């Protein structure tokens, strides 16, 4: 699998569960953080922008375990890009590998900050998504 963006994800001591592998919730945290950092760096203004992105659904499929102190990466690409929503496709990876330990999917719907009604993806973000994250 190829991802247009890969971000480092260093594991932490408290990421392990009682079975000695990374807790399921940590995978979601890593994916959510990667998406939001990418959006912020691409110009989404969380403080003063007229649109925000809210998560409408998410899922994760686990294929292989990871644990602290293993360094990981999160791969990000855009699947479906609609008028008001983006389906993000993610992979939790070992550095240098294209085979994910886990794959995830988040659907973000862009909404008007005040009304919380769906609103078009901001043009500058659409350009960045299509340029950097689509195959």
TrEMBL record:
The keyword Hydrolase applies. Keywords: Hydrolase. It holds the Pfam family 4HBT_2. SUPFAM superfamilies: Thioesterase/thiol ester dehydrase-isomerase (SSF54637). Gene3D superfamilies: Hotdog Thioesterase. Belongs to the 4-hydroxybenzoyl-CoA thioesterase family. Transmembrane segments: none annotated. PANTHER family: 4-HYDROXYBENZOYL-COA THIOESTERASE FAMILY MEMBER, NOVEL THIOESTERASE SUPERFAMILY DOMAIN AND SAPOSIN A-TYPE DOMAIN CONTAINING PROTEIN (0610012H03RIK). This is Thioesterase. GO terms for molecular function: fatty acyl-CoA hydrolase activity. InterPro entries: 4-hydroxybenzoyl-CoA_TE, HotDog_dom_sf. It comes from the Bacteria.
């Amino acid at each position: 699998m190829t991802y247009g963006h890969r971000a480092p994800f260093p594991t932490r001591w408290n990421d392990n569960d009682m079975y000695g592998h990374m807790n399921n919730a940590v995978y979601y945290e890593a994916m959510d953080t990667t998406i939001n950092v990418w959006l912020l760096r691409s110009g989404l203004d969380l403080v003063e922008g007229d649109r925000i992105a809210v998560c409408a659904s998410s899922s994760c499929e686990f294929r292989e375990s990871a644990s602290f102190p293993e360094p990981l990466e999160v791969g990000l690409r855009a699947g479906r890009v609609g008028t008001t929503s983006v389906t993000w496709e993610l992979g939790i990876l070992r550095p240098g590998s294209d085979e994910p330990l886990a794959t995830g999917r988040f659907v973000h719907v862009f909404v008007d900050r005040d009304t919380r009604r769906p609103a078009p993806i901001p043009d500058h973000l659409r350009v960045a998504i299509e340029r950097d994250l689509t195959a």
